[in-house]
Amino acid sequence: MKSAAALPPYDILRWYLDAGVDETMGEVPVDRYAAAARTAQVRAAPNPEAVSAESGRGPARIPAALAPASGDHTHTHGIPGTAAHMAAECHTLQDLRLALEKFDGLNLKHAAASTVFADGNPEAGIMCIGEAPGQEEDRQGLPFVGPSGKLLNRMLASIGLDRSTAYITNVVPWRPPANRKPTPDEVAVCMPFLSRHIELVDPQVLILLGGAAASAVLAKADGINRLRGRWFEFNSPGLPRPVPVLATFHPAYLLRTPEAKRDAWRDMLMVRKKLTPH
Ligand code: URA
Question: 78-275 adopts what CATH topology?
């Protein structure tokens, strides 16, 4: 890639887009030196979960295979400042929201405008989990409020649900730059928070939206085509009983692949059946 200084104005914008810079962030200047200092502190801290979004490398990475995907994050429970320790200390959803806002172990957070926690009704009994916020979600601080959120609303409506009768969150609460997929390491860092989130909500049914959420929560390497349309269970020490889990296609994928909507519709019917008392 050429250097930006050598390019005419239009090409400079193109160059920024190619480099992943796809929005301006507001009218108040951001002190990048302070952010860099924070990042340096995080890198220096003995936090086995800290990961750099740029390099994917942190001081001591947890391999994706060890991601505490079924609530088993006891290996770092005792280390203050780690996601596992902070998540284990949370006894309410408000504690968890504040813990995520305080957490400093993932550089994704420094590039994002918001910590996107959740939307909807945590008492509803149905919890949907997506991948990570996009641009509109980052701007509003709420999950699924952009184009894929509109389709998610329609998917929920197809089985008589809306945001007052469902609860929605993501595996990763910070928008990855340029909407790239979160890396397995970034997902692994966030998993203790997500496991605790599921424990605190204690839903009747979990819906996993897309391959990233499905493989993170089910701890399976299979793609979404293999995982969707079948019931699994999510188990975690803080849950009174295993939660039935169904994976389906991500609404963003359905927007690009309308022919897959038929299968997603079948998946939603499976959820409705599970929720309907016999
Ligand atoms: N895609 C996601 O996975 N989550 C959101 O919140 C928005 C888009």
Answer: Uracil-DNA Glycosylase, subunit E (3.40.470)
